[in-house]
Write a structure and sequence with these properties.
about 35 residues, mainly alpha, rod-shaped
């Protein structure tokens, strides 16, 4: 919480790391969908 200056990565990892992994999976799915089209 004190490391807000480091950006959104600290914010997302603040949720036990689940927030960051969710964004990562979402990004991978987006890349797969774009690559599939």
């Amino acid at each position: 919480m004190y490391h807000k200056y480091k950006g959104g990565i600290i914010m997302t990892t603040g949720v036990g790391g689940y927030g960051y992994s969710f964004v990562l999976v979402l990004f991978i799915l987006l890349v797969i969908v774009i690559g599939w089209c």
